[in-house]
From TrEMBL:
Keyword DNA repair: no
Keywords: Signal
GO-annotated molecular function: lipid binding
UniProt protein name: BPI fold containing family B member 2
Gene name, Swiss-Prot/TrEMBL: BPIFB2
Domain Lipid-binding serum glycoprotein C-terminal, chain residue ranges per copy: 246-449
Gene3D superfamilies for the chain: Bactericidal permeability-increasing protein, domain 1, Bactericidal permeability-increasing protein, domain 2
Similarity comment text for this entry: Belongs to the BPI/LBP/Plunc superfamily. BPI/LBP family.
Pfam families according to UniProt: LBP_BPI_CETP (PF01273), LBP_BPI_CETP_C (PF02886)
Annotated organism of origin: Catagonus wagneri
Signal peptide (from-to): 1-18
Length: 455
């Protein structure tokens, strides 16, 4: 049962709330039917308690009689949100018992109704915590499943014995399952890798918001580079996820604010992984990155290098890239400084010229393996201006061809490899997002998804 309620919280994706950066994870009421169905089997297993021997007083001497639960079948399990509180569970279960009487055993079925109220709150370590505030079990009359003439004499005392045991044990077993669940939810605050030297950690920042239609959880995401947190400038604003938003019938709605993207891009810049070197090859017929091809565009290059030599483009990101989220589209702007180098006679490299470049990219986002990933494509022309030159006057129209040919594709390949690794979303073991859809809004994105929990 607690597993069933806890599964509502297992889909915790990235989260923002009052602090930065963050994400809002909203579990909609559409998830309740799935959780109730998926939770039946583990709940039935949890309720297989041990029943002590029954002292049969029907004979001349007390006779200890062994009782065993053969099966717990749950034909009905219903969950609903309680506004401002948590989750209410109503379950109907049929307990089948075997009474090991001599000379013939007896089988009974005892219908039981379970009512459980479970508040959801913020834990001291920054994870969701489920507890049990009320738990009640109600019993109907036991049903004899065998034709046994002596059963009626034992039925009343036998049922009283079983009810007394179950009354104490069922809620205790449910409470134990909830404690196991909370240990499982504690894995949410662990560090998840972003890159070889970077991680992300999520933690709850306030108590959940609970309505009759959803439960909403606010998290703070902290990205670390070499153990040091990435800190954005202070802004006195918080992210509020509208309702409704995203796909109307999704089980989970995850809102990811602009801050999370700004923090991730800042991490990539500080890590230096956005920088790259593009090296030419003399033997390649389609590679223009050599002094021979460049000399056809800039005469001074041909004069300084009569023999063909490979060139190197040294791409460095000085300015922080900018992610812009507008309704229907996401863009990424890079302003790299590109230096064109050629090997000198002493094996050192000399700078031929350098360019200030502006690249606007379309950013496509998707979710795979509990990670938010992306790919890019160039929007319009790459804008270039000359920063410095050691080869005289440069015709930018001619150099534009070189940039389009030897710069764009390596840049896209490099960026897409980085963005394809993605950033881990808050998650616990065994949770999967099924058929996620991504919606881009002004200043945030939304992931709408179905869920699959597999042990």
């Amino acid at each position: 049962m607690a597993w069933a309620m806890g599964l509502l919280l297992l889909l915790l994706l990235p989260a923002v709330g009052a602090s930065r950066p963050g994400t809002v994870v909203r579990l909609n009421k559409e998830v309740l039917s799935y959780v109730a169905e998926a939770g039946k089997a583990p709940l039935q297993q949890a309720l297989q308690v041990t029943v002590p021997n029954f002292l049969d007083r029907s004979g001349e001497a007390l006779q200890p009689t062994r009782i065993q639960i053969l099966n717990v079948h749950m034909p009905h399990l219903h969950l609903k949100f309680i506004a401002g509180f948590g989750i209410h569970l109503l379950a109907a279960a049929n307990f089948t018992f075997k009474i090991f009487r001599v000379p013939e055993p007896l089988r009974l079925m005892l219908p039981v109704k379970l009512l459980v109220d479970a508040p959801v709150d913020q834990g001291s370590i920054g994870t969701p915590v489920v507890s049990i505030s009320d738990c009640f079990s109600f019993f109907d009359e036991a049903i004899v499943l065998d034709h046994n003439r002596t059963a009626s004499k034992l039925l009343v005392p036998l049922q009283k014995h079983i009810q007394a045991v179950l009354q104490n044990k069922l809620c205790l077993r449910i409470s134990n399952v909830v404690q196991d669940l909370n240990v499982h939810l504690g894995t949410l605050i662990g560090l998840s890798p972003v890159g070889p030297e970077s991680q992300v950690r999520y933690s709850m920042i306030n108590a959940p918001t609970i309505t009759k239609d959803y439960i909403s959880l606010d998290f703070n995401a902290v990205l670390f580079l070499l153990g040091r947190p990435i800190v954005l400038p202070e802004v006195n604003t918080s992210f509020v996820l509208p309702h409704p938003v995203g796909a109307s019938a999704a089980m989970v709605t995850v809102g990811l604010s602009q801050d999370l993207f700004d923090s991730a891009i800042l991490l990539l810049q500080k890590a230096g992984v956005l920088n790259m070197d593009v090296t030419g090859e003399l033997e390649s017929n389609d590679n223009m990155l050599n002094t021979s091809m460049l000399g056809q565009l800039i005469p001074e290059v041909a004069h300084q290098f009569p023999e063909p030599r490979p060139l190197v483009l040294k791409v460095r990101l000085g300015a922080t890239p900018t992610v812009t989220l507008r309704t229907g589209n996401a863009t990424l702007q890079l302003r790299p400084f590109v230096e064109v180098l050629a090997p000198a006679s002493n094996s050192a490299f000399q700078s031929l010229f350098s360019l200030n470049v502006v690249v606007n990219l379309s950013l496509q986002l998707f979710v795979a393996e509990v990670r938010l990933r992306g790919t890019t494509s160039v929007l319009g022309n790459v804008q270039i201006t000359v920063a410095s030159s050691n080869v005289g006057l440069i015709d930018l129209e001619k150099v534009q061809t070189l940039v389009d040919t030897v710069f764009e594709r390596p840049l896209l390949d490099h960026l897409n490899a980085l963005l394809g690794m993605g950033i881990a979303l808050p998650h616990v073991v065994s949770l999967h997002y099924i058929s996620p859809e991504i919606f881009v809004y002004e200043g945030y994105i939304v992931v709408s998804s179905e869920l699959l929990y597999q042990r």
